[in-house]
Every structure is written in structure tokens, then in C-alpha cells.
Structure prediction request, 239 residues.
Amino acid sequence: MVIDRSYYFMKAGLNLARALFVTNQTEKKQQAELGYWQLQKAKSGELSADHYEYFYTTHFDIDKEEYRGKRILDIGCGPRGSLDWATMTKRRVGLDPLAEEYQRAGLIRDSGMEYVDSGAEEIPFSDDFFDVVVSFNSLDHVDDLEKTISEITRVTASGGLFLLITDVNHDPTVTEPVSYEWDVVDRFTPQFELHWKDCREKSEDGIYASARDGEPYDFSNDEARYGVLSAKFVRVPDE
Ligand SMILES: C[S@@+](CC[C@H](N)C(=O)[O-])C[C@H]1O[C@@H](n2cnc3c(N)ncnc32)[C@H](O)[C@@H]1O
Prediction:
């Protein structure tokens, strides 16, 4: 069935309006997230996933072949098909508390990646299950940062990678209730070793364009503003 863009405009309008009126914060956040993606789909027709491969590989200096036979987990994957490119992996799992809503809303297209409907605070996989865990533009969207970090640590295999791209330095918002600064990287040590980090100014072009092409963050300017952090960690074996 072909769904016309006006359908997504209408659904986005309804969900964004609902987000204004519901009082439960989790429900408010979910309506706003859903409305946001419906609006993107209404505007662009198809949600593109073309940019993800660059961020999983070149951005973090990882060869695509390194993913062969590995298990990858994308935390807060959204509906775009972030792991569509990763056909050489053993498992490619996207975790999102809205995965089923995104499916129901027709936002997820059929691809080889698995979607799991869950928050990052309780990841339904066993200890050390994943070789690579990723959080791109999702860490500040979770409800409980401490539980999320503890779960990321638990499911990442010893020697495995954790890749992070996140906004920093913002006040809590409806969809980004968690706020932190550049030193959020310290929350991942000593259970992870920080191998690389990069700090950029956030431009109007959004988080991904800023992470890739943004100006280096000017730490001498103390004006309050968003920054974009990229960080690559390696899981240290438990003692
Ligand atoms: C801005 S979107 C980013 C989607 C995708 N990572 C990307 O960059 O295109 C943030 C995602 O985080 C998800 N999210 C919200 N709360 C979450 C939680 N507690 N655990 C995991 N993901 C969550 C939202 O449902 C949403 O899909």
C-alpha cells in the first residue's frame, strides 16, 4: 500500500499535539519522538540511512571488514535502518523503546537488521554478548543514564568497542531529558579505556554534519552552547 506524505503530516501533527498535552514525561517524550520521525518522513518521503556507514567506519577509523562475523548493537537506533549497510555481521541489532511504534507507524522499512523494542536501561541480552555497541544521538534521550551506562558495560564483550556520538552542554528537553558536559566520557572509565575523542561546535546542520565537518570546539569561548562529542572506547576485562 502506498501511503501519501499528507498521511504522515497528519500523524506527525497528532502526535506532536498529544506530546504537548500528556503529563506523563515518558509518554510525552515518546509522542514527540514519534511525531518528529513522522514529520521527517512527510517532508522527505523516505528516511535515508545513507550516512550511517561512514559513522560506523571512517569516522572512528574502523575498516568495514572489521565488522565481519561480529555482533553489533545500536542503542536508540531510531527507524532509519542504521545497520542496513552491515550485511557482513553475525547479528545487527537495533534497540529502541519505540521500535514497535515505529513499525506500526510504517516508518521502518524491511531490511536485514533486527529491531528490539526496549530501553537501554534493561538490555535483553546476556553479559558480553556484543562485540560493538553504539550510541549515536541517543545517550541524552534515555531516562536513566547510570543504568544505561551499566547495561552498555555489561553487554560489551571484553576487548569490544563502544562508539559514542552525542550532543553535550544542553539543558534537559522533552526528548533529551538527560544532560551532561564533555566529561561524560569519564563516566565510562575505568570499565572502558578511551581510545579517541573529538569535540566539535554544533552547527545548524545537525549532530551528524557537525561531528563530521563542524568547527573544532572553541574551549576559550565560555558562551553556553551545544557541542558534539565523538568518542571511541575499548572494553577493559573485568578484574
Ligand atoms: C534522535 S533519535 C536517534 C536515532 C538514531 N540513533 C539516529 O541517530 O538516527 C533518539 C532515539 O533514542 C530513542 N530512545 C529514547 N529513550 C530511549 C531509551 N531509554 N533507551 C534507548 N533508546 C531510547 C528514541 O526512541 C529515538 O529513537
User: Anything to note?
Assistant: Residues 1-46 form one domain.
